[in-house]
């Protein structure tokens, strides 16, 4: 069976659940709101990075993106809904690809729009402190932010398919990006640059000096996401539903 | 003509056989009642047919092909597995629209099946506001969406009100009359007898019966007459002359197998045998079914060979 009708069905699933709408809206709102607040913060800190300050909304924004990815997938594991889905689309690989596409496209659109709005809002607040940012840096920051949020949503969707539970995914990923990454990040040094959230957020900084650059950092996050999605696909293919 | 073919179908979960060497053909043009106690393997069999669970061994095909090989499967097979599978926060119409989109079905079918199952007026409401009976109707609507040749319904009468049961009976009869293959599971014999032409009975995953409904009733429900008299010798004589065998029970009543009250009553009256009591004592259909499945349970609880 062709891919496009399956994608249309999966996209309609996203559109017809209020909780998913809400999560997408939260990605947008959280990213902007945090950045706007950051825009009026202290700029005298020696480690002050105007680009990351302007895009600091990514921290709450990624929580919303993770929730969106996890919810979109976990709605299938609610009351055996996936049985109806796979009875309608028995090619599991194709169904899974359509589901992930229906997660990725809106996450990317909302992520890009949110990042752009956040940057504009923060620059209004930061004033001259952010005037040194080049156009290229700002484009990199906005595109990188959109891609990063999309990768985190896909990571969560893949992990949810592996664990067959949105609750399990959220209780692993949210503490990880909020706490664990910071704590072991300060302890372990070099290797932590390769954690999915650390690596992917390099692209949001004006200056960087770790072992990964902006785009290699996103590639590292993409590898993590590919691993989670691959594990989810493996679980879906081999198990009874 | 599309039939469901199960061949030596076996499914084990952690060493327990949910479906055990099942070979059955479910044919078109009739309603096949799929009976068995809870846990007999009916739902598992349906999931195996739909490719949702993988068989441990054996095959399940629809029209000779595995389900996953069907192009737009909803056009061939419609199934109701679980009334709670529709997402509670979606409306019934959206639920059906999504299924129609993925299989490229005409969007008009959504309204047609909503009307056919009697939930058109509540189609804009979220599924979580539905009663179990309404959810069953939505599940049946989803099964009919692709106008399929094969319809498989798992316990569809669960939660339906009496009017709904009558409606369902008519629907099943009509689907079969249109030449479709209709497989309907239930754990209630009398209910199944009201709509099924053919019976497939499972017990502990094994096939216990695969027989026309009429034959099942004929073979398993034997008419019997209960008689009490003050003149046992005369009674025995009359019954023997009419070719009946009577069994005397401890409390003094007699029972006559394969006999009808009309015949026994006339014979005893003509012979002048005093009768204190005369009654039909037929085992019910439900009892015949219980006897069948109880035997399977006893069989299955013997120590199993490894």
The most extensive interface between chains reads: A-B, 27 and 34 residues
Sheet/helix structural class of chain A: mainly alpha
Query: How is the main sheet of chain B built?
Result: 6 strands, mixed
According to DSSP, the number of beta strands of chain A is 0
Shape of chain B: elongated
- Tell me the overall shape of chain A: globular
| Radius of gyration of chain A from CA coordinates | 18 Å
The count of helical stretches of chain B stands at: 10
Tell me the distance between the termini of chain A.
20 Å
Number of helices of chain A: 10
> How much helix, percentage-wise, in residues of chain B?
25-40%
With strands numbered from the N-terminus, the spatial order across the biggest sheet of chain B is 5-6-7-3-8-9
| Mean of pLDDT of chain B | 91
> Whole-number radius of gyration of chain B?
24 Å
Pfam families (chain B): ABC_tran
GO molecular function, one term (chain B): ATP hydrolysis activity
InterPro entries (chain B): AAA+_ATPase, ABC_transporter-like_ATP-bd, ABC_transporter-like_CS, P-loop_NTPase
Protein name (chain B): ABC transporter ATP-binding protein
């Amino acid at each position: 069976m062709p891919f496009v009708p399956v994608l249309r069905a999966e996209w309609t699933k996203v559109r017809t659940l209020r909780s998913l709408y809400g999560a997408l809206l939260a990605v947008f709102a959280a990213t902007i709101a945090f950045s706007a607040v950051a825009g009026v913060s202290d700029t005298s800190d020696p480690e002050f990075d105007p680009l990351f300050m302007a895009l600091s909304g990514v921290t709450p924004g990624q929580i919303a993106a993770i929730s969106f990815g996890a919810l979109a997938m976990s709605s299938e594991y609610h009351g055996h809904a996936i049985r109806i889905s796979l009875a309608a689309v028995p090619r599991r690989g194709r169904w899974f690809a359509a589901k992930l596409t229906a997660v990725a496209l809106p996450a990317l659109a909302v992520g890009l729009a949110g990042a752009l709005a956040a940057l504009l809002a923060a620059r209004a607040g930061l004033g001259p402190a952010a005037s040194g940012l080049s156009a290229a840096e700002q484009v990199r920051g906005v595109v990188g932010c959109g891609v990063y949020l999309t990768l985190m949503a896909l990571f969560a969707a893949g992990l949810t398919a592996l664990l067959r539970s949105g609750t399990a995914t959220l209780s692993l990923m949210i503490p990880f990006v909020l706490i664990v990454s910071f704590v072991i990040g300060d302890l372990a040094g070099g290797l932590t640059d390769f954690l999915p959230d650390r690596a992917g957020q390099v692209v949001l900084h004006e200056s960087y000096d770790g072992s990964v650059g902006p785009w290699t950092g996103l590639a590292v996050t993409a590898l993590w996401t590919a691993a989670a999605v691959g594990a989810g696909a493996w679980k879906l293919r081999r198990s009874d539903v | 003509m599309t039939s469901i073919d199960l061949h030596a179908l076996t499914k084990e979960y952690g060493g327990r056989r949910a479906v055990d060497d099942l070979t059955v053909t479910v044919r078109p043009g009739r309603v096949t009642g799929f009976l068995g106690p809870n846990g007999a393997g009916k739902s598992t069999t349906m999931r195996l047919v739909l490719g949702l669970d993988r068989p441990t061994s054996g095959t399940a095909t629809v029209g000779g092909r595995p389900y996953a090989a069907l192009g737009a499967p909803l056009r061939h097979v419609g199934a109701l597995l679980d009334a709670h599978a529709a997402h509670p926060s979606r409306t019934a119409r959206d639920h059906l629209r999504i299924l129609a989109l993925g299989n490229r079905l005409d969007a008009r079918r959504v309204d047609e099946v909503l009307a056919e199952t009697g939930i058109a007026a509540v189609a804009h409401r979220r599924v979580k506001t539905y009663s179990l009976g309404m959810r069953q109707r939505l599940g049946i609507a989803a099964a009919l969406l692709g106008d399929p040749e094969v319809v498989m319904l798992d316990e569809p009468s669960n939660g339906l009100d009496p009017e709904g049961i009558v409606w369902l009976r008519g629907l099943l009869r009509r689907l079969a009359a249109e030449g479709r293959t209709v497989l309907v599971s239930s754990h209630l014999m009398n209910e199944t007898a009201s709509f099924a032409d053919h019976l497939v009975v499972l017990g502990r995953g094994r096939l216990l019966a695969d027989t026309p409904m009429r034959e099942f009733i004929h073979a398993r429900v034997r008419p019997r007459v209960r008689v009490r008299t003050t003149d046992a010798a005369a009674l025995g004589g009359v019954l023997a002359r009419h070719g009946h065998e009577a069994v005397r029970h401890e409390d003094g009543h007699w029972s006559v197998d394969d006999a009808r009250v009309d015949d026994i009553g006339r014979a005893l009256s003509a012979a002048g045998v005093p009768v204190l009591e005369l009654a039909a004592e037929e085992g019910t259909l439900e009892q015949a079914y219980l006897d069948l499945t109880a035997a399977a349970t006893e069989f299955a609880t013997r120590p199993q060979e490894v």
